[in-house]
Amino acid sequence: MAITNFHKYKLRGYAILELYLDGIIIIAGAYGSGKTEIAINLAVNRKRAGYDVKVADLDLVNPYFRTREAGALFNRMGIELVIPAQKWLQADLPILSPAVSGLIRQAGQLTILDAGGDDAGATVLAALADAFADKTVRMLQVVNPYRPKTDTIDGCLQIKGEIEAASEIAINGWVGNANLMDETTAEDLYSGYAFVSELSRLTDLPLEFITVAEELLPELNLNRFQTPVLPIVRQLTPPWRKAGVIKANRSTKN
Predict the structure, then answer these.
(1) Which pLDDT band, with edges at 50, 70 and 90, does 99 fall under?
(2) What gap in Å lies between CA 205 and CA 171, rounded to an integer?
(3) 133 falls within a domain
(4) Per residue in 127-186, pLDDT tens?
(5) Higher pLDDT residue, 245 or 146?
(6) Are 207 and 174 in contact (CB under 8 A)?
(7) Cα atoms in the Cβ-side hemisphere of radius 13 Å centred on 218
(8) Structural domain boundaries, residue 108
């Protein structure tokens, strides 16, 4: 089931269905699903669209590839980023600063919460129950069908159940992030889209958007995707690889 509240915008001459998300959005998923890269690119995408965007890095499990790595980029773009206090950045326990609760209680037009991977990372969300009490919160599960655990429908549903149990919040939408890093082809993206579309159909939960590495856009027939597309400029890279350049002032709307 794809959402229908969208319009088209231009990126390098390609007409793409623009996603529409606002309010408090939690990005969750299996470890290694790409959720943090998505959180960063989603924040940038919506900021360029004119949204007031705030981001909270709630990943207290994974010491690498966290949303906070995009701090300098967010600062240039005027995106508010809240992270745990410095003394808790490497903590093993789910310790949150009052700033996180404050961000939720005074949410922006779009407030993105990047949760940690698997059920262990989602546990921290249960500690925010009081802050969520009078808020409408949506949690989206990122699925990469080319990763272990989420390469089958049953695997995706198992992860879903574990995240929901740990966070005490229901998953109510899917994000397709089909990729094999540098080996990804157009056919991989088409097959991945078919997989998450079937997952959406079977669960009756919307496929909110899929992701496509920006450099692959010229190789794709975008008409094959009946859901919004979030172009990804990779920011979280190993030390030997340079991150993609995101310009703060790029205009994407018609």
Answers:
(1) confident
(2) 9
(3) yes
(4) 888 889 989 999 999 999 999 999 999 999 999 999 999 999 999 999 999 999 889 999
(5) 146
(6) yes
(7) 2
(8) 7-232
Q: Which pair of tokens denotes residue 1?
A: 């089931």
Report the alpha-carbon distance of residue 107 to residue 60 in Å, rounded: 21
C-alpha to C-alpha distance for 138 and 12, rounded to whole angstroms: 31
User: What would the DSSP string read from start to end of 106-118?
Assistant: T--SEEEEEEPSH
In a domain, 245, yes or no: no
Could you tell me which residues come within 8 angstroms of residue 148 by beta carbon, excluding any fewer than 6 positions away?
A: none
Q: Is 214 left (phi over 0), alpha (psi -120 to 50) or beta?
A: alpha
Q: Distance of CA 156 to CAs 34, 221, 239, 241, Å?
A: 14, 27, 30, 30
So what's the pLDDT on residue 191? 98
Q: What is the CATH classification number for the domain harbouring 184?
A: 3.40.50.300
**Among candidate residues 10, 16, 78, the one with its CA nearest the CA of residue 43:** 78
- The structure tokens listed for 131 are 């802050």
Number of domains in the chain: 1
Task: Give the alpha-carbon dihedral of 182, 185, 186, 188, to 10 degrees.
Answer: -110
Six-digit token pair at 57? 């890095």
Q: Is the dihedral of CA 194, 48, 76, 23 positive or negative?
A: negative
- Global pTM reads 0.84
- With cut-offs at 50, 70 and 90, classify the pLDDT of residue 57: confident
